[in-house]
Amino acid sequence: MRYRVLIEQDEDGAFVAEVPSLPGCISQGGTRDEALSNVREAVGLYLESLEAHGDPVEQREREDATDAGDGLQELEGLGVIGLGLPPKS
Fold it and tell me: Which pTM value belongs to this model?
């Protein structure tokens, strides 16, 4: 599954990563890479919680992303990435 992730640097220099299609799924890090790693973990836990409670998981994908490697897709100039997660087996 792929989820759009918005990344912004706050006034204190921390990077904040938010997944708009998963309400409340937000993480942060001291670097962009740390924020991405943390939000990847947050998405996994969010989806586990939905599954445990029998709630539906909505999948959204951005077609205007270009492959940036490592399961991430970069949207030029927007500070937005597509976070690819491996399918559940």
Answer: 0.68
